[in-house]
């Protein structure tokens, strides 16, 4: 199951699990759309392709809450 990380690793923008606009690689490194574009949709950590992260909302989000651990090092 995806962690649904709460922020962009590059700029720190909030990325709520229930909203579109987040991009992830196969290791779940997470970036906002603007940073994914700036990175040419390739993860700077592993070199993998950045893809649209699915959303999680409603009962699924209540049963399986998103991660609260922020990854931005800024």
List keywords for this structure.
single chain, 74 residues, alpha+beta, three-stranded antiparallel β-sheet, 3 strands, 16% helix, 11% strand, globular
Describe this structure in words.
Pfam families: DUF1272 (PF06906). Residues 52-62 have a biased composition (Basic and acidic residues). This protein has helices spanning 33-38, 58-63; strands spanning 22-24, 30-32, 51-52. It has 74 residues and is of the alpha+beta class. The chain has one domain. A 3-stranded antiparallel sheet has the order 2-1-3. Strand 1 and strand 2 (30-32) form a beta hairpin. The longest helix is centred in the middle third of the chain and has 6 residues, at 33-38. It starts with 21 loop residues before the first strand and ends in an 11-residue tail after the last helix.
